[in-house]
Design brief:
Radius of gyration: 24 Å
Structural class: alpha/beta
CATH architecture of the largest domain: 3-Layer(aba) Sandwich
Strand order of the largest sheet: 3-2-1-4-5-6-7-8
Oligomer: single chain
CATH superfamily of the largest domain: NAD(P)-binding Rossmann-like Domain
Largest sheet: 8 strands, mixed
CATH topology of the largest domain: Rossmann fold
Number of domains: 2
Number of helices: 17
Helix content: 25-40%
Number of strands: 13
Mean pLDDT: 92
CATH class of the largest domain: Alpha Beta
Distance between the termini: 53 Å
């Protein structure tokens, strides 16, 4: 049996037979899937089910953008990767897994961080973009690049037990900025690393993103353009909100002011947030802290994480005490205002805010541990659990 370009081979006809039996999809729909080029930004919690199901469905070319390597803490939810992949680039691990699922799919690996410098060039090569990111700068970057290029953006986000899904397409409906014109203040919304996420949740939300992508490619059904689907996993229940295009939107409105990609770290305030020394809050490296402790210097070490994080791993062995961020003002009297304080959290962002707060409250000397407890683990305790 011979096939013309874009048609299906005998092996593909057998593999996709259950798709071909669907009158709404059939052979034409499967050919459209085979001809499609989809870019997945992020091969983590959301990206895992999206990639697995799109590959299994027969998307012809699947591009994956992710600069990270597989970490043990990923495996609770990032089912694209396995224990043997720890330390391996995620794009490499993903390509191997997806090729095993479906050798007819071409996987294009982009082991780079998506930035304003490369986003337009990368996204321009694909028909549909799937946002599997977990941070606001990249989320706004993906949205703006898609709007400027006229590409549909299949959006998903997760936190703890809840998730959201939508399709943003500035050509026919609202974009992400129509819903969230400005990002929240830095630190207001905890990351999944700080707040946690139920491992099965990205499977649910990512599967819905894969479904929306297939609908966009094949033209089957009604995509979630102009609608936001909300999922609460504890009750459980789905709710749907109607979204409207904002004529004042700076990207897709009547008089757009964002006509090129900007500095999204600065826009979201994360660049300043990561400079822990800003606003008078000094820093101390894990090595310097160890040296001061070994020299017998009297320090108050304060862990501003949550109790469940303290239970996973802590620095009580060097005298740390737990005062969660939310209790800091009420319990500041427990701390010596004239002592040398060192505060830490998971990675340094929350404790940077805590340090500045304590300085404004009149504490004489407050330093933030660079890299948080993860930095300490990397330097001195590689066998301790990371999270």
């Amino acid at each position: 049996m011979t096939t013309k370009e874009g048609d299906l081979s005998r092996a593909e006809l057998q593999r996709y037979s259950r798709h071909l039996m669907l009158p709404e999809l059939g052979r034409p729909g499967q050919v459209r899937l085979k001809s499609a080029r989809v870019l997945l930004v992020g091969a983590g919690g959301l990206g895992s089910p999206v990639a697995l199901y799109l590959a299994a469905a027969g998307i012809g070319t699947l591009g994956i953008v992710d600069p990270d390597v597989v970490d043990a803490t990923n495996l609770q939810r990032q089912v694209l990767h396995g224990t043997a992949d720890i330390g391996r680039p995620k794009t490499e691990s993903a390509a191997a897994r997806l090729s095993d699922i479906n050798p007819h799919v071409t996987v294009e690996r982009h082991a780079v961080r998506l930035t304003s410098a490369n986003a337009l060039q990368l996204l321009a090569e694909y028909d549909v973009v799937v946002d599997g990111t977990d941070n606001f700068p990249t989320r706004y970057l993906v949205n703006d690049a898609c709007a400027l290029l006229g590409k549909p953006n299949v959006y998903g986000s997760i936190f703890r037990f809840e998730g959201q899904v939508s399709v943003f397409d500035a050509r026919t409906g609202p974009c992400y900025r129509c819903l969230f014109r400005e990002p929240p203040p830095p630190g207001l919304v905890p990351s999944c690393a700080e707040g946690g996420v139920l491992g099965v949740l990205p499977g649910i939300i990512g599967s819905l993103q894969a479904l929306e992508t297939i609908k966009l490619v094949t033209g089957v059904g009604e995509p979630l353009i102009g609608r936001l689907l909300l999922f609460d996993g504890l009750r459980p229940r789905f709710r749907q909100l109607t979204l409207r295009k904002d004529p004042r939107c700076p990207v897709c409105g009547d008089s757009p002011t964002v006509t090129e990609l900007i500095d999204y770290e600065a826009f979201c305030g994360t660049a300043a947030e990561e400079r822990h020394g800003a606003n008078g809050a000094a820093t101390i490296s894990p090595e310097a802290l160890r040296a001061e402790l070994d020299a017998g210097r009297a320090l108050q070490i304060v862990d501003v994480r949550e109790p469940h994080e303290w239970d996973i791993v802590n620095l009580s062995a060097v005298g740390a005490r737990l005062v969660p961020m939310g209790q800091l003002e009420d319990r500041s009297a427990e701390l010596d205002v004239d002592a040398d304080l060192v505060v830490y959290c998971r990675s340094g962002a929350r404790s940077a805010r805590a340090a500045r707060r304590l300085l404004r409250a009149g504490f004489r000397s407050v330093r933030n541990l660079e890299g948080g407890i993860l930095g300490w683990i990397d330097q001195f305790e590689p066998d301790w659990p990371r999270y």
